[in-house]
Structures are given as structure tokens and as C-alpha cells.
Design brief:
The complex is a heterotrimer of chains A (450), B (329) and C (173). Chain B has 329 residues and is α+β, with helices and mostly antiparallel strands. The termini of chain B are far apart. Chain C has 2 domains: 63 residues; 83 residues, Glutaredoxin (3-Layer(aba) Sandwich), CATH 3.40.30.10. A 4-stranded mixed sheet of chain C has the order 2-1-3-4, covered by helices on one side. In chain C, a hairpin with a 2-residue loop joins β3 and β4. In chain C, α2 crosses α3 and α3 packs across α4. The chains are: A alpha/beta (450), B alpha+beta (329), C alpha+beta (173). Bound molecules: flavin mononucleotide, iron/sulfur cluster (3 copies) and FE2/S2 (inorganic) cluster (FES) (2 copies).
Chain lengths: 450, 329, 173
């Protein structure tokens, strides 16, 4: 059993209630930070911990915090990104559902570090029951004096506001999120300026993922060095991985960074291996936006090393033979799945979710979807595969926000590693296993809710 | 002042100047094309990606290149910055990509489009040797609609540059049109049937880079390249009264605001000047418009396409007939 | 584009009005517009599940916005319905991870059991079916959202039937 810094008490009955959470050591980090540390010391511990953003980009959190403009004296905001919409990712939901007070505790110590007195949790609108859980937790915390004015008599004030989205993947992008929070369409902003200088309502703002913030109480309590000693290299600490696809035990797991992908996939402690008779075909290790890895490159890097679940190991080989840890959305495909179909499906997703602001993404994502649809239906030609490659290249790197890249990468990596499948769809579409199975019942009755 | 080098030409600009404006200071062929940026409209730019350039050296202090191409219209110049535009094959390639993508959903019906001859997209496409895309799929289509008594919207031609909404925000008290929906199906619309009618609404036509917003009074009356643009003015209580009259003989076919070398208006005009003074006696004519924005028409490259047009369609204001013609195509 | 006017004015219940005021109050001074999305959710609820032009105009007035600002926002987000919908909107996730677990099968099953296509409303006004993108339940697929809840692992006909029956029962009480 690996170390559990976040989910240690996730299975305790009623841990979402303040009194139970307190009995398991909850809010000790708030007490420690507010009473015995200065904000700068908290920032310092987080820097030492090597904690990296868990929302997808993996940017060092302490460093991000140090960019926040504190000098001008304007109000500062902390915004928690709970928009969780990246296909394959469902970890923040789990964390908030089970341990709402852990997130609040993280927000309190982080706000203290940033000297911010108002924090927002931007929750995707579909998570209605989570909004209620969070609001109840906030009420409990306020009543017990962990939130509001003069917390623990230290003079530190903090309000937390839960704000719902309304159905838009792009609002997970931090500047689109801020626009949405301001009551506008979720259009990513043009950077610079960065949110650390001009963010919410024009004020200095830090946006962090749910899991990132939830990791801070442990760091405050145990010290940055202790956190940094867990994990591997620059991938410190633990990470929540949401595993789905053709595996026996889909779900949310906390792993110590550096666990081998093979062990994660096949061990009974984690995914429990493939769900049925088919073997492993491919893995998307970090949410739909990251490059897909064929089985061979998922288990071993191109240089023959075991592939580890860490920022560095997953990225090893660059786009040629690597991928990314991304948000930790771990999607497993067995041999019966069709890469052409899956690529089409993802292209449809990005087309649907493009905000439409910049032309390469607005026009290009639709084009990608249409070519892929044609190929998937078996009406494509070999020239269409080359065209597909060309179109994704026109989008990548030329857009306002990374959604354009996120739309291009799955297409590029699918062609790079599975060109033969695309060709097969041109010559013999009727052989596609997925198309043949589609009419049948898809049942996998093995998995049941935990 | 800071120094910046663009395509090996050095210039000095004020701190905070964008790369695009620095290039415009140098002038000539090295100026990146701009389809959404509009200097007099704060908040414009960054969207069309036509103006992408390569930053080879970010600044004197940080000589590293920038990892991606950047939109020159919204990236500030830094002291010692080195930029490549037309001398970078990567930029040319990316720009070609942008053109092709802009045309994916564009009807390219220039022969029947009122903007032909003064259309940024037409020029942009021509310059990059592209007259169509490789996309074989149906384009998104919309029926043309009248938004108010003066303006017609051909949403199919819109490139979603956001300029018309920005101009409305700036010049009118309450914007009634906006950008609805999301992604590829976004559209300019009023959502409910609503006329756009205020004293400055006509400027939306002038800022539109394509033929999406057109002057209903001018539609089909003539092709711009048959007309004589003249600078003129009149005393007006609402605006500067400085306009361009588009004449054939002594007849005024159209009144527009004055555009600079980059197709931008700096003195917006009121609807009265634009639509209520078609008598030459109302104006003090200053003389022929001193320069013309570069265009495929002026460069005499457009003749092949113009020939396809039935001449009589341009001779008189005859909407009924034109509609029939449109129905056929 | 057609806008739907319901022809009837929108009124919030006293409780909803109080809720709206609470929402507005929680944002900083001068940032009333931030309340737009939460209040549109409320308006949709108060207006029988969709946002008519009247409902949006009402919200515009409440927040001192011009109507077009509200239309722009309402049309951007997929959770806002701009046309009438059934009392229960069955929103089936059809994104990759769900698809490999049978999202298309779930859609087909719902369509044939209810006798309507996507976007339609059953004659009794109870159900409509809609495809949506990833709802962050990828490990519990196939699934759908209905109202406040997620219904997961809908991988047998019996489970689908039981869900529909449960909703019908609810409608009667
Ligand atoms: C298209 C797009 C979608 C994103 N969605 C999310 C999301 O749902 N949740 C999240 O935390 N970060 C998301 N991100 C990343 C955020 O922009 C941002 O980097 C992150 O919230 C920063 O927090 P972190 O440093 O703690 O990871 C997304 C980014 C992009 C470009
Ligand atoms: S890349 Fe796509 S999502 Fe991002 S700003 Fe451009 S159009 Fe919007
Ligand atoms: S808008 Fe420009 S490119 Fe499009 S049809 Fe008209 S003239 Fe041609
Ligand atoms: S109508 Fe014209 S000005 Fe308005 S967004 Fe479209 S192209 Fe731009
Ligand atoms: S002009 Fe710069 S992006 Fe459009
Ligand atoms: S793919 Fe369906 S919930 Fe994520």
C-alpha cells in the first residue's frame, strides 16, 4: 500500500462532516499556519515541497504563488479550479464528495499564504450535489470559526464562495474560468498579462486545481522537505489518478509518483488488469488531451526503461514516443477498441468545446471531426489521413489557448502510432471490431459502484 | 524608447507598443496582415491569428526565442527584440494555414459579394495563393438578414473578428447585437428580431473586414472599383463630418468614413452623414482620396472573376432582380 | 436562429427572489454581473426547465444588464436550455471513455424505450434525451445525468427500465 496523503480518511463514515473530520486531525494545518507561521513561511514550505499543479500543466505551485503581485496592495484572490471536465478525469469530484473539509482547509492555508481574503471555488455546473456538499461544509466551518472574520483570533479574515459553471469544458482554462466567474462567456484571455497580475476583476489572482490545494495542509503540517521525499525526482508527493476504460477496477486511486505504469495497470491493488479477454492496446495516461501511447510504449519507454507514472517518465521521448501526466485521467483501451473511432470521438469533443474565439481552433476542430467521421465510416481515402495530419498541424501552436493543441495532439499521436488502423479503415472498414460490436450490448457487469 | 528589429530592419518605438504597430512604423511588405485588430477599438485583436510572427529573440535581457509564434497585434515589443515575419518560412506556412482555415466555412462568393475589391479576406487569401480550401464538407450557412433599416448581415461571410460588437460597445449606449452560441456555430445576432438603430450604427459596416455587414443602400448599386473616392466634409453636429464620397460622375453612390493605409477608421461618422446626404451640394469636396489600401482589385488581379458578373446587375438599384440572381446561384 | 418567446411573463417565487438576492450579495461591490450564471440556473428552474426570452429579459433587468449580454452568456453554456424540454432531461455522456463502455447502446436503449429521438419530448411531457460531453464519471460508465443526480453503471436493460420507472413514480408524487 502506497502512502496516502490525501485520501487517508476518505473511507471514514461521515468524514464530510466537520466533527468527524476534526476527530481525524482535520484543520490542524490551519491552526499551525495561522498561529505559528508567517504567510511567507507557508509559501516557502510549498516551494520546498516541489508540489506541482495537479490541474494538467504541472507548473510548480510555490513558484506560481511567488509571482502574485502583493506589492500594489490591491485585493488578491485565490480561485480553486473545480471545473473538472477533461475526458477521463474524475478525481476532483471524488475528493470534494468525500473530503470537502480537506479542500476548505487547503484553501484556508493557501489564502493565508497568499494574503488573500476572498476565495472562490468554481465548480462545474453539473456537479450540483457537490455544490451542496461544499456549501454545507462552508457553513459548518464558518459556524465553528474556521472561516469568516478573525479566524482563531489571529486577525485573519477569509470568505469562500462557491460559484457554479454551466457546461463548458473551456472554463477549466484558467482565464476562461475567470471570465466565466465575472459573468461572461468563457473566452480565454490573451496573455500577457497573466492572472497573477491582472486576474479576477482585474486584481492579482492565483488559480489552482482542487487537488493542488488539498495537498497543502499536509505540507504545512509535515513540512515541504517531508513532501519532497515522497515521489521521484521532480515529481514529488502523491497524485490522484482516475482510472477508466477496459480495466477490472475503474476508480480513483492515490499513488506515490513514480509507481510503474505496469504495476498500476495490472496489480490488484490498483486497476486489477484488463477487464475481459482482450489484451492491452493503448493507454491515454493523462486525460484526453495528451498523446495516446500504444501498449509497448505505455509499458516501456523507447529506451527500454519501465514507464513510470511521473511527470518526467511519461514525457520521456517527447511527442515521438512519450505523452504527459496531464490531469491524471488514465484511460485504458483493449484490443477490441478502435483508435480511429476514439480519435473521432475526441475530435468531436474538442469541436463541441472550442469557444470559437480564434480561427484555427474554431474552424480546424470541425474540419478534423469531419475528416475523422468520414474515415471512421469507411468512406475515407489514404489522402484523407495525410490531410488530417496537415490540418492538425495548422492548429497546433497557433491558437490563443492550449485547447487548440489539446485538439491536435490526440489526432497527431493516433496517426503516428496507429497509422495502420487508419489505413485499415480505408481498405476494410467492415473488419473493425468496434463497429461490429457497437450494435451489440456493451455490457461490462464486473464493475459496480464502490 | 526601445529598439526592435523586424525582418532585419531596426526601428525605435515607445515602450508598450505592439510588434504589429512597430512593424507599421517601418511600413511596407514586412507589416503583418491584421483581420481582427483595430487600433481604435480597445480589446480588439488576438483572434484571427493572421498576424502571427516569430520572435527569434525575446529581448536584449532574455535573448531566448519564444517557443511559439505570437500574435503581433497583442504582443508588446521589448528592447532588443528580434522578430521575423516574411523572412520566416514557419510564419508564412502558419499564415497559409490560417487562410485555409478561415476559408473552411467561407462561401467565397466574391463575384456576388459587395465587399469584393475592399475585402481583407479576399486580399489575404489572394496573397497566399489560396482561392479555396481542401475541405469538401458542407459549409455552415445562414440566411442573410436585415438588422435594422440600413444594414444587412450575411453571417455566412463573417470571420468572427468581434470588431462590430466592440464598435457598438464604444459608440452606442446599448448594444443590441452580439456573439451568440459557441465554437464553430457562433454567430453575430440580435437573438430576437431587433433593429440596430442608433446614430452611429453605420460604423459597424466600415469596421467589418469582410462582406458580412453591408450597407443596404449601396448593395448592388455598383462595384467599388468603378467608383471615384473623394475626400469631403460637411459641418456636422454629431461627428467630425469627414468622409469619403464614392462618386460616379456627380452621383454619390456611397458615403463612408475615411480609412487609413491599414483599412482603419479613426474618425467614426454618424448615420446622417452616411445616409442622409446623397446630394453633392451638401459637401465640400477636398479632392481625390490620397491613397488606396492595397487590394487585389487595385493590383488588377481580379479581372477574371469580375467578368462573370452580369453587368446590368450593377447598373441600378434593383434589389428584386438581384434576389433572383442570388436565388439561381 | 429562432428565439423562443413563451408568451408568458416570468415570475420568481418569493423564496427564489430571496435566493437571488443572496447570490447577488455574495459578490464584491460592483460585481453584480458575476451573479449572472447562478441566477440563470435559478431562472431556468423557475421557468419550467428552459430559458425563454422573457426569462432572460427578467434576469437582465434584475442585474442591470442589457438583454444581449444575457443572451450571449446563456447561449454559450450547454446547461442552459433555450427551448422547452421534458420534465426529466436524460443527459447521456457520449465521450470516449463512456463510449467504449456502451454510451451509444444506452442512447439507443433510451430512445427505443421512450419512443423519442434526441432533442424531442415524450408525449406525456416527462422525458427528453440529450447527448452531452464528459461529466466526470468516466470510470462509472455508461451513465447519464438527470437533474441533480448522476445515474451510473447503466449497463443492463433492467437498470435502465428501473431508472425510468423510478422517475415516473417520482413524477406522480
Ligand atoms: C482547455 C483547458 C481545460 C482545462 N481544464 C481544467 C480543469 O478542468 N481543471 C483544472 O484544474 N485545470 C484545468 N486546466 C488547467 C488550468 O488552466 C490551470 O492550469 C490550472 O487550473 C492551474 O492549477 P494548478 O497549477 O493547480 O494545476 C485546463 C486547461 C485548459 C487549457
Ligand atoms: S484555442 Fe479554441 S478554445 Fe482556445 S481561445 Fe482559441 S477558439 Fe477558444
Ligand atoms: S467577404 Fe470577401 S472573400 Fe468573402 S465573398 Fe465577400 S469579397 Fe469574397
Ligand atoms: S460581422 Fe464583420 S465585423 Fe462583425 S464579427 Fe463578423 S466579420 Fe467581424
Ligand atoms: S490581427 Fe492579430 S490576431 Fe487578428
Ligand atoms: S467520458 Fe463520460 S463521464 Fe467522462
Amino acid at each position: 500500500m502506497g502512502k496516502r496523503l490525501l485520501l487517508e480518511h476518505a473511507h471514514v463514515e461521515s468524514i464530510d462532516r466537520l466533527d468527524v473530520y476534526r476527530r481525524h486531525g482535520g484543520y490542524a494545518a490551519v491552526e499551525k499556519a495561522l498561529k505559528s507561521m508567517s504567510p511567507a513561511e507557508v509559501v516557502e514550505e510549498v516551494k520546498k515541497s516541489g508540489l506541482r499543479g495537479r490541474g494538467g500543466a504541472g507548473f510548480p505551485t510555490g513558484l506560481k504563488w511567488s509571482f502574485l503581485d502583493k506589492k500594489s496592495g490591491r485585493p488578491r484572490y485565490l480561485v480553486c479550479n473545480a471545473d473538472e471536465s477533461e475526458p477521463g478525469t474524475f478525481k476532483d469530484r471524488y475528493l470534494m464528495e468525500k473530503l470537502p473539509h480537506l479542500l476548505l482547509e487547503g484553501i484556508i492555508v493557501s489564502s493565508y499564504a497568499l494574503e488573500s481574503h476572498c476565495a472562490f471555488i468554481y465548480v462545474r455546473g453539473e456537479f450540483r450535489w457537490i455544490i451542496k456538499i461544499l456549501e454545507r461544509a462552508i457553513e459548518e466551518a464558518c459556524a465553528a470559526g474556521w472561516l469568516g472574520k478573525n479566524i482563531l483570533g489571529t486577525g485573519f479574515d477569509l470568505d469562500i464562495i462557491v460559484h457554479p459553471g454551466a457546461g463548458a469544458y473551456i472554463c477549466g482554462e484558467e482565464t476562461a474560468l475567470l471570465e466565466s466567474l465575472e459573468g461572461k462567456r468563457g473566452l480565454p484571455r490573451i496573455k500577457p498579462p497573466f492572472p497573477a497580475v491582472v486576474g479576477l476583476y482585474g486584481m492579482p489572482t492565483v488559480v489552482n486545481n482542487v487537488e493542488t490545494l488539498a495537498a497543502t495542509p499536509w505540507i504545512v503540517l509535515n513540512g515541504g522537505d517531508a513532501y519532497a521525499s515522497i515521489g521521484i525526482g521532480k515529481s514529488t508527493g502523491t497524485k490522484l489518478i482516475s482510472a477508466c476504460g477496459n480495466i477490472r477496477k475503474p476508480g480513483v486511486y492515490e499513488i506515490e509518483l513514480g509507481l510503474s505504469l505496469e504495476e498500476f495497470l495490472y496489480s490488484d491493488e490498483w486497476c486489477g488488469g484488463m477487464e475481459g479477454a482482450y489484451g492491452l492496446k493503448a493507454v491515454v495516461p493523462g486525460g484526453s488531451s495528451v498523446p495516446i501511447l500504444p501498449a509497448s510504449l505505455a509499458l516501456k519507454t523507447a529506451s527500454g526503461q519501465p514507464r513510470l507514472l511521473s511527470y518526467e517518465s511519461l514525457a520521456e521521448g517527447g511527442f515521438e514516443s512519450g505523452s504527459m501526466l496531464g490531469s491524471g485521467g488514465f484511460i485504458v483501451y483493449d484490443e477490441a477498441q478502435c483508435i480511429v473511432r476514439n480519435t473521432f470521438n475526441f475530435a468531436r469533443f474538442y469541436h463541441h468545446e472550442s469557444c470559437g474565439q480564434c480561427s484555427p481552433c474554431r474552424e480546424g476542430t470541425g474540419w478534423l471531426e469531419r475528416i475523422l467521421h468520414k474515415l471512421e465510416e469507411g468512406h475515407g481515402t489514404l489522402a484523407d489521413i495525410d490531410l488530417l495530419w496537415d490540418v492538425q498541424k495548422k492548429i497546433e501552436g497557433n491558437t490563443i489557448c492550449p485547447l487548440g493543441d489539446a485538439a491536435a495532439w490526440p489526432v497527431a499521436s493516433a496517426i503516428r502510432h496507429f497509422r495502420h488502423e487508419f489505413e485499415e479503415h480505408v481498405h476494410h472498414p467492415e473488419r473493425c471490431l468496434f463497429r461490429r460490436r457497437q450494435a451489440a450490448v456493451p455490457v461490462n457487469a464486473l464493475a459496480e459502484p464502490v | 524608447m526601445i529598439r526592435i528589429t523586424i525582418d532585419d530592419i531596426e526601428t525605435q518605438v515607445e515602450e508598450g507598443t505592439t510588434i504589429l504597430n512597430a512593424a507599421r512604423k517601418i511600413g511596407g511588405k514586412i507589416v503583418p496582415p491584421a483581420m481582427c485588430y483595430y487600433s481604435s477599438l480597445p480589446g480588439s485583436g488576438g483572434k484571427c491569428r493572421a498576424c502571427l510572427v516569430k520572435v527569434e529573440q525575446a529581448s536584449a535581457r532574455d535573448p531566448r526565442p519564444m517557443p511559439k509564434l505570437v500574435a503581433s497585434c497583442c504582443t508588446p515589443a521589448q528592447d532588443g527584440m528580434v522578430v521575423r515575419n516574411i523572412t520566416s518560412p514557419e510564419v508564412i506556412e502558419a499564415r497559409k494555414g490560417v487562410v485555409e482555415l478561415l476559408l473552411v466555412n467561407h462561401p467565397l462568393d466574391c463575384p456576388i459579394c459587395d465587399q469584393a475589391g475592399e475585402c481583407d479576406l479576399q486580399n489575404f487569401a489572394y496573397e497566399h495563393g489560396l482561392e479555396k480550401t481542401r475541405s469538401e464538407f458542407p459549409r455552415r450557412t445562414f440566411d442573410p438578414i436585415d438588422i435594422g433599416p440600413h444594414i444587412q448581415l450575411h453571417m455566412t461571410r463573417c470571420i468572427l473578428c468581434y470588431r462590430c460588437t466592440l464598435v457598438a460597445d464604444q459608440l452606442t449606449n446599448e448594444r443590441v447585437h452580439g456573439i451568440l452560441w459557441r465554437g464553430e456555430v457562433s454567430e453575430i445576432s440580435t437573438y430576437i428580431q431587433k433593429a440596430i438603430d442608433n446614430d452611429f450604427s453605420g460604423n459597424m459596416i466600415d469596421v467589418c473586414p469582410v462582406g458580412a455587414l453591408t450597407d443596404k443602400h449601396f448593395r448592388f448599386r455598383n462595384r467599388v472599383w468603378f467608383l471615384n473616392p473623394m475626400d469631403a466634409h460637411r459641418a456636422c453636429s454629431k461627428c467630425s463630418g469627414k468622409v469619403v464620397l464614392w462618386l460616379r460622375g456627380k452621383e454619390i453612390y456611397r458615403v463612408t468614413a475615411r480609412k487609413d493605409a491599414y483599412g482603419e477608421v479613426h474618425d467614426f461618422i454618424c448615420n446622417a452623414c452616411r445616409w442622409e446626404h446623397y446630394d453633392l451640394n451638401d459637401w465640400v469636396v477636398e479632392g481625390p482620396r490620397s491613397f488606396q489600401p492595397w487590394s487585389v482589385i487595385n493590383a488588377n488581379k481580379y479581372n477574371a472573376q469580375t467578368k462573370e458578373l452580369p453587368d446590368q446587375l450593377y447598373s441600378k438599384l434593383d434589389n428584386r432582380r438581384w434576389n433572383e440572381f442570388e436565388g439561381v446561384t | 436562429m429562432l428565439a423562443v418567446r413563451s408568451g408568458k411573463p416570468v415570475t420568481f417565487s418569493a423564496q427564489a427572489l430571496e435566493q437571488a438576492q443572496q447570490i447577488i450579495r455574495r459578490y464584491p461591490e460592483g460585481q453584480k454581473k458575476s451573479a449572472l450564471i447562478p441566477i440563470l440556473h435559478l431562472a431556468q428552474e423557475q421557468n419550467g426547465g428552459f430559458l425563454s426570452v422573457e426569462a432572460m429579459d427578467y434576469v437582465a433587468e434584475m442585474l442591470d444588464l442589457s438583454p444581449i449580454e444575457v443572451y450571449e452568456v446563456a447561449t454559450f453554456y450547454t446547461m442552459f436550455h433555450l427551448k422547452p424540454v421534458g420534465r426529466y432531461v436524460l443527459e447521456v455522456c457520449h465521450t470516449g471513455p463512456c463510449e467504449i463502455k456502451g454510451a451509444e447502446w444506452l442512447l439507443q436503449t433510451l430512445k427505443s424505450k421512450l419512443g423519442v429521438d434526441e432533442g424531442e419530448i415524450t408525449p406525456d411531457g416527462l422525458f427528453s434525451i440529450r447527448r452531452v460531453e464528459c461529466l466526470a464519471a468516466c470510470g462509472y460508465a455508461p451513465m447519464l445525468q438527470c437533474g441533480e443526480r448522476y445515474y451510473e453503471f447503466l449497463n443492463t436493460e433492467e437498470k435502465v427500465e428501473a431508472l425510468l420507472e423510478h422517475l415516473r413514480q417520482n413524477a406522480n408524487t
